[in-house]
Amino acid sequence: MCRSCATTATSNDLPADATGPFPGLSRRGLLTGLGLAALTVNLSAGASTAAEAGTPAVAGTAAAAATAANGAWACPALGRFPAGGHYGAPRGGASHAGQDVSNSTGTAVYAAAAGTVVRRSWGGGLPGRTGNALVIAHGGGQYTYYGHLSAYRVGLNATVRAGQRIADMGATGNVTGPHLHFETHAGGLGATVNPVSFLAARGVDLAGGWSRIDPGAKGATVVVIQHLMNQRGYGLAADGAYGSVSVDAVKRFQRSKGLAADGQVGPATWPKLVYTLRQGGNGSHVRALQAALNKRGAGLAVDGGFGSVTTSAVRAYQSVNRLVVDGEAGPVTWRALTG
C-alpha cells in the first residue's frame, strides 16, 4: 500500500501550472451497504470522514448530484483492498487521500469515466503524492487520480472513454508493494472524497463486484444488457439507451426469475442474465460479450460468433486483469467486464 499519498487541507482549485483544457470504508462495509439507501448513507459518511481528517468534503449539492447508476462510470482496476489502504487512514500527521487496490505489476488500469488527461507526471503534481500518476478531468469539478503506475498508456491531453485502458499498475514512489492508489475529487482538484462510496453511488463496486445499472442509463453496458436480453427472445434495439421499452423487458425477466422487478440490473440480476460462453458459441449473448470486451478496448466485430479472435480477446483481458486465463467467459469474467 501507499506509505505516503496523504493530504491535508487543500485548495479546490486546479493549480496555475496545470496543463490541459480544464482550468474510511472497508471492503466489508461496502459489501454490507449495497442498497440505494445505504449508498446515500455511505456518501454522507464519506463526507464526514473527509471533514474529520481535515480534507475538504463534497458540498451538499455536489453530493446529491449524479447519484444515479447511469452507466457512465467503470471500475478502474481489479484487486484486493489492503489493510490500512482505505480512504482516511492515518499517514503521519495527515490522512490517506484515496483507496488502494492491490494486484501485481502490469495489471490493467482503466479510466473510471470519460474525460481528458490533465496530469501525467510524478505524483500528478499534487502535494504528498509520489510515483507515476495520471489525473483525468471529467467536467463539473470532478477528477480521478491514478497513482504508482508502472506504465502510461495514454498521453497528456488525451480524451479517454470510461473503461479504456490508460495505464498499468505498479510500485513507483513511496510504497510497500504494487497497487493502484485511486482518488476521486469532487468540487475541484484537491477536494477528495471517499472513492468507494463515490463510485458505489454511481453503480460501481470498487471491490470488484457486479455493477448496478438504473433505468435511464446509457452507453456500452446498456448495449451488453440489451444483447443478453435478446438472447432470451426480447427483441430489443441494441441502441445503448436504457429507456422504457428495455426497462419493461428487464422487469418481465426479473419477475420470471423471482427477482424484485425494479428494472435495476445489479448483483441479483446479472448472474441470472449472463451465460457461460466459450469458443464455438453463436448468438446475441456472444454479441453482448464482444460489446463488453470492446468497452475495454478489444476492437472486435460484434458479429455474434465466438471464434478464435474473440477467444484471444477474452484470454488477453483475463491475463491483464489477473483472472484465470482459460478463454471462457464465465461469471467471474462477466463481473469484471461489466463492472
Description:
The chain is 28% helix and 17% strand. The model is unreliable at 9-67 (pLDDT under 50). It is globular, with a radius of gyration of 19 Å. With 339 residues, it is α+β, with helices and mostly antiparallel strands. The longest helix has 17 residues, at 36-52. Strands 4, 5, 6, 7, 8, 9, 10, 11 and 12 form a 9-stranded antiparallel sheet that branches. Strands 1-3-2 form a 3-stranded antiparallel sheet, with no helix packed on it. The protein contains 10 helices and 12 strands.
The overall average pLDDT, rounded, is: 84
Indicate the low-confidence ranges by residue numbers: 9-67
Cα distance spanning the termini? 23 Å
Number of strands: 12
Which structural class should the secondary elements be placed in? Answer: alpha+beta
Radius of gyration: 19 Å
Strand fraction: 15-25%
Assembly context of the chains: single chain
Give the overall shape: globular
- The SSE string, one letter per element, is EHHHEEEEEEEEEEEHHHHHHH
How many helix segments? Answer: 10
The largest pleated sheet is described as: 9 strands, antiparallel
Helix content bin: 25-40%
Any key phrases for this structure?
339 residues, 3-stranded antiparallel beta sheet, alpha+beta, 28% helix, 9-stranded antiparallel beta sheet
Concise overview:
This protein has 339 residues and is an alpha+beta fold. It has ten helices and twelve strands.
Set down the secondary structure blueprint.
Blueprint lengths: L5 E2 L19 H5 L4 H17 L7 H5 L25 E2 L2 E3 L2 E4 L5 E3 L4 E8 L9 E8 L2 E11 L6 E2 L4 E5 L9 E8 L5 E2 L1 H6 L19 H12 L12 H13 L13 H4 L10 H12 L12 H13 L10 H8 L1
Antiparallel strand pairs: 1-3, 2-3, 4-11, 5-10, 6-7, 6-9, 7-8, 8-10, 8-11, 11-12
Helix pairs in contact: 5-8
